[in-house]
Amino acid sequence: MTSIPLAGRRPDKRTRRILARTVVGLLLAGYGLISVYPFLWMISAAFKDQLEVVSGGHLIPKNPTLDTLIDTWNKLHFFDFFLNSLLVTLYTVVLTLVIYAAAGYAFAVLRFPGRTFLSRLFVSLLFVPGVTVMLPIVLLENEMGILGTHWGLVLPFVNGGAPLSILLMTGAFGAIPAELRDSARVDGAGEFRIFLNIYLPLAQPALITVALLTAIPTWNEYLLTRVSLNDQSTFTLPLGLQTLAAENVPHYNNLMAGALIVVIPVVLLFVCLQRYFVNGLVGAVKG
Known about the structure:
The chain has 287 residues and is mainly alpha-helical. The chain has 2 domains: 14-67, no CATH class; 70-286, MetI-like fold. It has 14 helices and no strands. It has helices at residues 13-45, 50-55, 67-75, 78-109, 115-124, 134-144, 151-160, 162-174, 178-186, 191-202, 204-220, 223-228, 237-245, 252-286. α4 (78-109) packs across α8 and α11 (204-220) packs antiparallel against α14. The protein is globular.
């Protein structure tokens, strides 16, 4: 019998599928490593002294120390800036949830003239860069007398979160069966009670998603805070971190430690609420 040469045989479909998945997996892993490396370097530098940071590019500290974090904590006046950031973020999240949960319910459930047009108008605002309205916001805040105060941050943040928040809440409320509302109406429940006792509890993942998508950019916002705030007593954490960068001789280990202090709260928040975040996005998309 003559043997059939194997050199020219093409791999079967299963083998090609495995090879394709392997290549894609390696590419994604490489991209992930490249993306996460700056974050790992920030963590590493936060546990080094200044000399070790500027003298070598190794990732693992040779002599890890907590002195950098402690020194940065004291320089950054962490508690004052942390409290300012916390208050601004809390006010923004609460107002966003109250206003846009009600708006999402109205767009998803109620019927009124101009409903479709207004809904599409809000969604279209997603494509407007926030920096384009920075100057009008500052001028308006100056006329209102809130420039330089925390309300000069909270109100623009709440307004800027309208398009995405309304889109998510409308999708989440739209996915709830209308029969529940009809049953409640038969039992004598009013619109506000239906919204409060039925729709809000069922839309909890979407509410948490909106809260996360509002809290994280509000906590990290720098540009508007830099333009609006001048008094150091009102500074939030990103502006407090800038005071370290403004030193005559910047200490990069302190800068990285300060950045780590700023980032840790939002990372922990996202890790704790990740499950609700994913469920909220999936529910909004299905709706």
